[in-house]
C-alpha cells in the first residue's frame, strides 16, 4: 500500500525541483553574455535584470503574505 505524501513532503519535493529549474534557466540567461555569439547593449541587460529582480520581489511578498507591500502611498 502506498502512503500519501504529506503537505510538507509535497512542498519540499516541488520547491527543490522548481528552484533547481529556475537556477538552471537563470544560468542559461547568463550564457547570453557571450559577445562572440550575441549582440546586446546595456539597456537590454538592464531590462532583463529589472524583470528578474521584480519577479523575486513579488515572490518574497507572496511568501511573506505582506499585502501592504503592494499598496501605494505618498
Please give a structural write-up:
With 74 residues, this protein is mainly alpha-helical. Helix content is 64%, strand content 0%. It has two helices and no strands. The protein is flat. It starts with 6 loop residues before the first helix and ends in a 10-residue tail after the last helix.
What's the short version?
The protein has 74 residues and is mostly helical.
Give the termini distance in whole angstroms.
59 Å
Helix percentage range: 55-70%
Tell me how many strands there are: 0
Order of helices and strands: HH
Q: Low-confidence segments, ≥5 residues, pLDDT <50? A: none
Can you summarize the main beta sheet? none
Summarize model confidence as the mean pLDDT.
91
Radius of gyration: 18 Å
Give the overall form: flat
Q: Proportion of β residues?
A: under 5%
Tally of helical segments? 2
Topology:
Blueprint (H helix, E strand, L loop, with lengths): L6 H24 L11 H23 L10
List keywords for this structure.
mainly alpha, about 70 residues, single chain
Amino acid at each position: 500500500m502506498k502512503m500519501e505524501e504529506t503537505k510538507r513532503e509535497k512542498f519540499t519535493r516541488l520547491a527543490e525541483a522548481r528552484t533547481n529549474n529556475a537556477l538552471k534557466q537563470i544560468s542559461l540567461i547568463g550564457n547570453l553574455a557571450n559577445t562572440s555569439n550575441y549582440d546586446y547593449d546595456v539597456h537590454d541587460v538592464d531590462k532583463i535584470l529589472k524583470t528578474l529582480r521584480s519577479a523575486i520581489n513579488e515572490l518574497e511578498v507572496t511568501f511573506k503574505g505582506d499585502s501592504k507591500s503592494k499598496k501605494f502611498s505618498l
